Amino acid sequence: MAIEPDTKNWTWVIEAACPDCGFDGSAVTFRDVPTVIDANTDGWPEQLRRPDVRERPDESTWSPLEYGAHVRDVHRKMTERLELMLAEDDPLFPNWDQDATAVADRYAEQDPATVTRELLAAADRAVSAFGGVPDHQLARTGRRSDGSVFTVATLAVYYAHDPVHHLWDVRRSR
Fold first, then answer.
1. What is the percentage of the chain residues whose pLDDT exceeds 90?
2. Phi/psi of residue 66, each to 5°?
3. Average pLDDT estimate for 30-51
4. Burial 3-20 (b: 16+ CB within 10 A, else e)
């Protein structure tokens, strides 16, 4: 059964604590983000080796494998957006429909070992990219197609919440 698309605007996590996963964007600095991503990445291989990795806990929730593939793609997408912000003045990000991507790329049918390798590589690339941004570039801006404006610093905090939240999602589904 198809997952209901998430239409919430999650940008509030930049300035507040998520009542579900506990991530507190107001307490995370730009320089904390690589450490947050590294720590989160360490938890994914175990989840992607679960015997129930392909099983959805209910009809409206992704399986651990689907979440892992999504998190891999989030690392890739946010690294692309960071690179765009550093290369262009106030770019408009190409729209990314994460739910359409999950269907088109057949997340549920992907190989868990491949997803694990790709997730780890994408996270490492993101950690390097975000970790290498000099302070004088943190205020550079970029815009999402829905009008949300980010600085490099706020994009990083917004991004860090996503893998943290999804690892929480997967762990609670046991």
1. 87
2. -65, -40
3. 98
4. eeeeeeeebebbeeebee
Angle between helix 33-48 and 112-131 (nearest 10)? 180
The span from the CA of 58 to the CA of 56, in Å, is 5
Return the closest-CA partner of residue 153 out of 86, 66, 62. 86
Neighbours of 128 (CB within 10 A): 11
The DSSP-derived string for 39-82 is: HHHHHHHHHHT-TTTT--SSTTS--HHHHHHHHHHHHHHHHHHH
Q: What is the value of pTM for the model shown?
A: 0.94
- Residue among 82, 170, 172, 91 at smallest CA distance from 126: 82
Per-residue pLDDT, averaged over 72-92, amounts to: 98
Residue bearing tokens 């706020």: 154
The residue to which tokens 């593939």 are assigned: 69
Rounded mean pLDDT, 48-76:
96
Distance CA 126, CA 118 (A): 12
Cα 111 off chain centre by: 20
Structural tokens at position 55: 């099983």
Look up residue 105 and give its two tokens.
């790329």
DSSP of 92-142:
BPPP--HHHHHHHTTGGGS-HHHHHHHHHHHHHHHHHHHHT--GGGTT-EE
